[in-house]
Design brief:
The protein has 442 residues and is α/β, with parallel strands linked by helices. The chain contains 16 helices and 14 strands. The protein folds into two domains: 173 residues, Aspartate Aminotransferase, domain 1 (Alpha-Beta Complex), CATH 3.90.1150; 247 residues, Type I PLP-dependent aspartate aminotransferase-like (Major domain) (Aspartate Aminotransferase, domain 2, 3-Layer(aba) Sandwich). The structure holds pyridoxal-5'-phosphate.
Length: 442
Amino acid sequence: MSSQTRSNALFAEALKYIPGGVNSPVRVFRAVGGQPFFAQRAEGARVWDVDGNEYIDYVCTWGPAILGHAHPKIIAVVKAAAGRGTSFGIPNPLEVKMARLICGLVPSIQKVRLCNSGTEACMSAIRLARGFTRRDQIVKFDGCYHGHADSLLVKAGSGALTFGHPDSAGVPADFAKHTIVLPFNDADAVKAAFAANKNGIAAIIVEPVPGNAGLYLPKPGYLEFLREITKANGALLIFDEVMTGFRLAPGGAQERFGISPDLTCLGKIIGGGLPVGAFGGRADVMDCLAPVGPVYQAGTLSGNPLAMAAGIAALEELNRPKSKLQGPKSKRAMNDAYSRLEKLGAQLETGMRDAAKAAHVPVRFNRCGSMFCAYFTAGPVWNLADAMKSDRDRFKQFFHGMLAAGIYLAPSPFEAGFISTAHTAADIGRTVRAAADVLRRH
Ligand SMILES: *Cc1c(COP(=O)(O)O)cnc(C)c1O
C-alpha cells in the first residue's frame, strides 16, 4: 500500500478544527475503514493526493466533473470572469445566457431560478410547490436524497445510511410529519398515499434514477405512472435532477425517459465544479416566486459570475456537435460527449459483470449511461430495501483492493460511481482488470 503520511497528518489536524475532519460527511472513510486522502490536484480522469499517489477517479467530485477535472476551457473562462469581478449582486449577462441554455436543453423548463447548491434548489422547489398548490404534504422516496433541508432529510440515502441515522436529529417532528416517505418503484404505495391524503399532497419529489443509495432504475412505466397520478390529483411532479441533469442525456433523465415534470431541480454539472444550483419548470408555477409572486426565495451569490462562466462552458462543451457535416436533427442525440459516455459505461458494465462471474462473487452491477453501482448481492436492486442487502464487508474489501490498485471509488456501498468524458477505454480496461484481480481474491 502506498504512503499516506501527509494525508494522515492533515486529517489529524483537520479533526482539531472541523467536526469529523470533513465538510461533508460522505468524504470520510467510516463505511470502509481507514482515513480519507487529501487531494493535491486533479486533471482529466486522474486525482493526485498530497503523498503523490495517483488514482483513476470514479467519484468525479460526486458528479459535477463530467468533462473530467480542470478542463482547459472551464479554467480559461473562470480566470477571465474572475478578472472582471467575482460577484456583483447586480444582474449580469451570464445569468441570462445560463438560463437560456438551461431552458433550451431541458424539455420541461420554461423558466429557471439560479441558486447556490442542490440543497437550496430542492428546498426552494418544495416551498414553491407548496405555495402554488396551497397544500402542505409532500411525498418522497426511501433512499432518495434531496439535500439537507429539514422537510427532505427523512430516509435520505447514502450519508444517512452510512452513518446509521435514517433521519437527522434537529428536524422537528412537526416538520417531518408533512413528509410522506414511500418505497421507490411501488405504484400501490403511491396510490394509497393519495387516497389517504385527498387534496393534501402538494408534490412528489423524486430522483428519476435514484443515485444516492447506490444506483437503481425506475421500472418501465413507473415514471409515467408518477406523472399521471400527480396530474390527476392536482399535485406537482418534481424531478430532482441535481445528479442526473445533463448527465443521462443533454436534457437529463426527463429526456431519456420522455417524461415532463412540472418542476426540475438542478445542480452539480451546471456549475462546472463551482457551487451552483437551479430549479425551473412551468412558467405559471415559476411566476409564483418573488418578486412576481408570493413565494420568497433569494441569494446574495445566486447567479455568481464565476459559477455561471464555468457552467456555461461545461454545458457548451457537453453539447458540442460531433462535426459540422452532421445534419441538425442528429446533432443533439449523436454529439460526441454522450455517445462517448454511453460507450465507456457499457464497457465498464460488461467488464465488471464478466469479472464478477469469473470470480464467482455475487455482484449486481446497475448502470444508466455514465452512472453505475456494484452491489454485492445476488438479487436485483429496485429500491432501498434491495440495496441494503449489499454485503458491506465485501464492499469494504473491494474498495480497498481497488484503491491499492490506484482506482478511487466512492467510500460507501451506497454511492453511485461516475464516468467522465476524460476517462479512456484504456482507463476502463485497467479498472476492469483490477476488479477481476480484487474479486478473485475475495
Ligand atoms: C447532490 C444532490 C443534492 C444536493 O446538492 P448539494 O449541492 O450537495 O446541496 C440534491 N439532490 C440530489 C439528487 C443530489 O444528488
